[in-house]
């Protein structure tokens, strides 16, 4: 039997009525001749509520008990989905992570999947079961404790199952009808993409387009799992949604696939640090130990053996970063003259695999920003991405200008 993985996010299982609608979709695929593995999230808002309860109960909570609590939302929806399917005469049963068992590391609340044995579920398919409903987001550690995969982890559960069972496709049902060239709330010209390459999706996902958990895209790329993102609120035909796939499966695409942004960024500069071997390690080592996610880094040319070091970070990590830098200064490891912080910046990026073979994308980007009078504070580039840090108040304008200049409202 051909097999499909269908994943339903929190909004798609938010009420019993929506669970019924989702189950109908599953029933249709069964009627089309598929065996189906359904991965469910918790009802929308549930995981946040559970996390809140844990935090209210215990400030320095035991992460093993955090996982015991927050994984429970998926247990409920898995059971309800199986019951709903049974009511529709579709042979189905539910599995908790530990029952599969979906084996993970013991990094509680951020566990990684190690192995998914298929024999147990396949034996049931062989006996005539049509749908295996699996609770997303959770697994079991080598110690036998319940683990969770990090927020948004059900996407990763879904892709991992698709890879392990050799599914024809992994359909991710969500509350948007696909992946867009940029956030439609920022420009009405944003266009749904029919296809996007794994690498582009990875850049867009990690840049804050919150459609898929980044790790699910990494996993899909590694195992070449065809991923489709589509809405559970619309009637979908064969070509609905966005297919996230290998570059080779995309015939034509724009040089730039999308414009991503991250609103809440900050920039810190250490003025006049000694330009000597080991200085970067002395700065960024302690930042990393303090749990600061440094993104862009620029070191100025040095004059008389001193230089300035600038880096960007999420704005809510500024206090932590400042404390770490004051500590290295006090201990004389890094002797800067001043620490300058700018908490009003945003990052805007253009992403596209077409940049590999097209020159001039950066120049076109900078020109578009210049034409709007937007000053660029930091620039970084990779093979398929160019990012700039700008004043936050110009973020929307920059996204709109870049969307226009690269003609993203039109398909290639
Ligand atoms: N329910 C979990 C969360 O909200 C996992 C998921 O839905 O992907 O993060
Ligand atoms: Mg999600």
Automatic annotation (TrEMBL):
Q: Which GO terms describe its biological process?
A: homoserine biosynthetic process; lysine biosynthetic process via diaminopimelate; threonine biosynthetic process
Q: Which InterPro entries match?
A: AceGlu_kinase-like_sf, ACT-like_dom_sf, ACT_Aspartokinase, ACT_dom, AKii-LysC-BS, Asp/Glu/Uridylate_kinase, Asp_kin_monofn, Asp_kinase
The pathway it acts in is: Amino-acid biosynthesis; L-threonine biosynthesis; L-threonine from L-aspartate: step 1/5; Amino-acid biosynthesis; L-methionine biosynthesis via de novo pathway; L-homoserine from L-aspartate: step 1/3; Amino-acid biosynthesis; L-lysine biosynthesis via DAP pathway; (S)-tetrahydrodipicolinate from L-aspartate: step 1/4
- GO MF: aspartate kinase activity; ATP binding
Keywords associated with the record = Amino-acid biosynthesis, ATP-binding, Kinase, Lysine biosynthesis, Nucleotide-binding, Transferase
Task: Report the catalytic activity.
Answer: L-aspartate + ATP = 4-phospho-L-aspartate + ADP
Q: Does the keyword Hydrolase apply?
A: no
Q: Where does the record place the ACT domain?
A: 268-339, 350-412
An annotated GO cellular component: cytosol
Look up the EC number in the record and give it: 2.7.2.4
Q: Name the NCBIfam families on file.
A: asp_kin_monofn (TIGR00656), asp_kinases (TIGR00657), PRK06635.1-2 (NF005154), PRK06635.1-4 (NF005155)
Q: To which protein family does this belong?
A: Belongs to the aspartokinase family.
The name under which this protein is listed is Aspartokinase
Instruction: Report the source organism.
Output: Silicimonas algicola
Q: What is the lineage of its organism?
A: Bacteria, Pseudomonadati, Pseudomonadota, Alphaproteobacteria, Rhodobacterales
């Amino acid at each position: 039997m051909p097999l499909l993985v269908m994943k339903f996010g929190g909004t798609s299982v938010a009420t019993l009525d929506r669970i019924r609608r989702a189950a109908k979709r599953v029933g249709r695929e069964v009627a089309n001749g598929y065996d189906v593995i359904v991965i469910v999230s918790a009802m929308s808002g549930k995981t946040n509520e559970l996390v809140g309860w844990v935090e209210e109960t215990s400030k320095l909570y035991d992460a093993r008990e955090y996982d015991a609590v927050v994984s429970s939302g998926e247990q409920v929806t898995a059971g309800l989905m199986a019951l709903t399917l049974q009511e529709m005469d579709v042979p189905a049963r539910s599995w908790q992570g530990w029952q599969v068992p979906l084996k993970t590391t013991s990094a509680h609340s951020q566990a990684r999947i190690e192995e998914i044995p298929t024999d147990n579920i396949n034996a049931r398919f062989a006996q005539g079961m049509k749908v295996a409903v699996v609770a997303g987001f959770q697994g079991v550690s080598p110690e036998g404790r319940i683990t969770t995969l990090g927020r948004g982890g059900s996407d990763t559960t879904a892709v991992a199952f698709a890879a392990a069972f050799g599914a024809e496709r992994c359909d991710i049902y969500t509350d948007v009808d696909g992946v867009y060239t940029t956030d439609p709330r920022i420009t009405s010209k944003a266009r749904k993409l029919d296809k996007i390459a794994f690498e582009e999706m990875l850049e867009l996902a990690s840049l804050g387009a919150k459609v898929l958990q980044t790790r699910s895209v990494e996993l899909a790329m590694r195992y070449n799992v065809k991923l489709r993102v589509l809405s559970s609120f619309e009637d979908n035909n064969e070509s609905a949604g966005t297919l996230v796939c290998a570059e080779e499966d995309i015939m034509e695409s724009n040089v730039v696939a999308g414009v991503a942004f991250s609103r809440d960024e900050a920039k810190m500069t250490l003025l006049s640090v000694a330009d000597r071997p080991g200085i970067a390690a002395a700065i960024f080592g302690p930042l990393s130990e303090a749990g600061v996610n440094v993104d862009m880094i620029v070191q100025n040319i040095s004059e008389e053996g001193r230089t300035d070091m600038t880096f960007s970070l999420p704005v809510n990590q500024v206090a932590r970063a400042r404390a770490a830098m004051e500590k290295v200064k006090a201990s004389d490891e890094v002797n800067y003259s001043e620490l300058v912080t700018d908490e009003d910046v945003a990052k805007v990026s253009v992403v596209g695999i077409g940049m590999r073979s097209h020159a001039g994308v950066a120049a076109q980007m900078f020109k578009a920003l210049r034409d709007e009078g937007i000053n660029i504070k930091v620039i970084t580039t990779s093979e398929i991405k160019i990012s700039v840090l700008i004043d936050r108040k110009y973020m929307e304008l920059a996204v709109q200008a870049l969307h226009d200049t690269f003609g993203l409202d039109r398909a290639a």
